[in-house]
Specification:
single chain, 172 residues, alpha/beta, Dihydrofolate Reductase, subunit A, 8-stranded mixed sheet, two-stranded antiparallel ribbon, 4 helices, 10 strands, binds NADP nicotinamide-adenine-dinucleotide phosphate
Length: 172
């Protein structure tokens, strides 16, 4: 399964000045639950923000300029090579596309499921999640969390592509 995992605000902000511009205790719980034991693929700037491979999962950094190599961490020069590496070297593990904006944009058509944390906030930011066609997905709300800044864990599951039309020429 290729999943995409993101938290965004009502105005689709995912980041500002290289950081996530909100702090909500516990909000990253689902990220940890889903990605543990699996593969995360992230852009170089997102990796720089964290500064180390995440524990208990395999990290693939996408970069043409940097070369991070550590236990459970490699760098690939493109998203397609990152996915191919994961499929070959981490069989049976789910792949989670974990940002930032370029990875999300290129990864959206490839992802079977979008795991989105909808943050109930309008905030300024310089990095946005791309617009996408919501009619292609079924949306389920998995959990709603109240608090100073409420948020929802939502899953968008890609609808099956319509079967190719059969040749329906009628016999006479
Ligand atoms: N809210 C969330 O869920 C979430 C998740 C992740 C990140 N963020 C936020 O998003 C911001 C960072 O995102 P960003 O979009 O600025 O940067 P990014 O995607 O993390 O990193 C950009 C860099 O990654 C490499 N890269 C990305 N896509 C590539 C591709 N398709 N092919 C080859 N290389 C690619 C390039 O590295 P080189 O220049 O080295 O070639 C590019 O300069 C931060 O503010 C972060 O906090 C938020």
């Amino acid at each position: 399964m290729i999943g995409l995992i993101v938290a965004y605000t009502k105005n689709r902000v995912i980041g500002n000045k290289g950081q996530i511009p909100w702090r909500i205790k516990g909000e990253q719980r689902r990220f940890k639950e889903l990605t543990t034991g699996n593969v995360v693929i992230m852009g170089r700037r997102s990796y720089d923000e964290i500064g180390r491979p995440l524990p208990n999962r395999f990290t693939i950094v996408v970069s043409k300029t940097a070369h991070y190599e550590a236990e459970n961490c490699v760098t690939m020069p493109s998203l397609s090579e990152a996915i191919a590496y994961a499929e070959e070297n981490r069989p049976g593990e789910n792949i989670y596309l974990s940002g930032g904006a370029g990875i999300y944009k290129e990864g959206l058509p490839l992802a079977d499921k979008l795991f989105i944390t909808e943050i109930d906030l309008e905030i300024e930011g310089d990095t946005l999640f791309p617009e996408f066609d919501k009619s292609l997905y079924t949306r389920t709300v998995d959990e709603e969390v109240d608090g100073e800044i409420p948020y929802k864990y939502v899953t968008y599951t890609k609808k099956p592509a319509k079967a190719a039309r059969k040749n329906c020429s009628t016999k006479k």
